[in-house]
Write a structure and sequence with these properties.
Blueprint: E1 6-12, E2 25-30, H1 36-44, E3 62-67, E4 71-75, H2 86-102, E5 106-114, H3 121-132, E6 137-142, H4 152-163, E7 171-173, H5 182-194
Parallel strand pairs: 2-4, 2-5, 5-6, 6-7
Antiparallel strand pairs: 1-3, 3-4
The structure holds guanosine-5'-diphosphate (GDP).
Cofactor: Mg(2+)
GO molecular function: GTP binding; metal ion binding
GO cellular component, one term: cytosol
């Protein structure tokens, strides 16, 4: 996939601020620190378009990136930081829910989990939520470079079992460090936005 253009468009907190040109959208969701910004930068061959997080739960907005003027990536806030106050969690949850349930151009959600660890309760909740609302979901297991190749299958099995994944849902390995899985993920994205 040749990324000719990648523009950060807006950080939105409410639907009125979402882009309104009806281009298809792929959302990215995952625990804070899972490697979401790194994956976006890696896919787009940009160093710092999506800012990698240093502070827990810093991004509480939905960040839209327009790619090749053909579709959007919607980076939804990272979840799962215990230290975030309940009130903030609530606002967050509401914003995510409003977006994920109500967003017409949304074609699929890339749900990211860390390959090294079994998915957390929050990961499970997110996956169940997406399935319940019949939103297409692909699981991307990040930081593959940190797990020896010989153990990949074992770790993937744990991810699938912990999330109780549907057989038909794709699961992919990814490393922002080595760009492993990049072409495969692009392939899925291109197919889905063309539909
Ligand atoms: P975000 O909070 O989900 O946006 O996560 P970041 O992209 O900021 O990544 C969190 C940390 O994990 C950073 O220190 C990254 O350098 C590191 N990281 C992200 N992806 C990878 C990866 O594929 N391999 C390795 N080794 N480290 C990664």
């Amino acid at each position: 996939m040749l990324v000719k253009k990648a523009d950060f468009v807006i950080s939105a907190v409410k639907p009125e601020q979402y882009p309104d040109d009806a281009l298809p959208e792929i959302a990215l969701a995952g625990r804070s620190n899972v490697g979401k910004s790194s994956l976006i930068n890696c896919l787009l061959c940009r160093k710092n378009l999506a800012r990698t997080s240093s502070k827990p739960g810093k991004t509480q907005t939905i960040n839209f990136y327009r790619i090749n003027d053909a579709f959007y990536f919607a980076d939804v806030p990272g979840y799962g930081f215990a230290r975030v106050p309940k009130s903030v969690k609530k606002t967050w949850g509401k914003m995510m829910e409003t977006y994920l349930i109500g967003r017409k151009p949304l074609k699929a959600v890339i749900q990211m989990v860390d390959l090294r660890h079994p998915p957390s309760k929050d990961d499970q909740t997110m996956y169940d939520f997406l399935k319940y609302h019949q939103i297409p979901v692909w699981v991307v297991a990040t930081k593959a470079d940190k797990v020896p190749r010989g153990k990949w299958q074992k770790h993937l099995k744990i991810v699938k079992e912990t999330l109780d994944m549907e057989k038909e849902d794709p699961i992919l390995l990814f490393s922002a460090q080595t760009a492993y899985g990049k072409e495969q993920l692009w392939h899925l994205i291109v197919q889905q936005v063309a539909n």
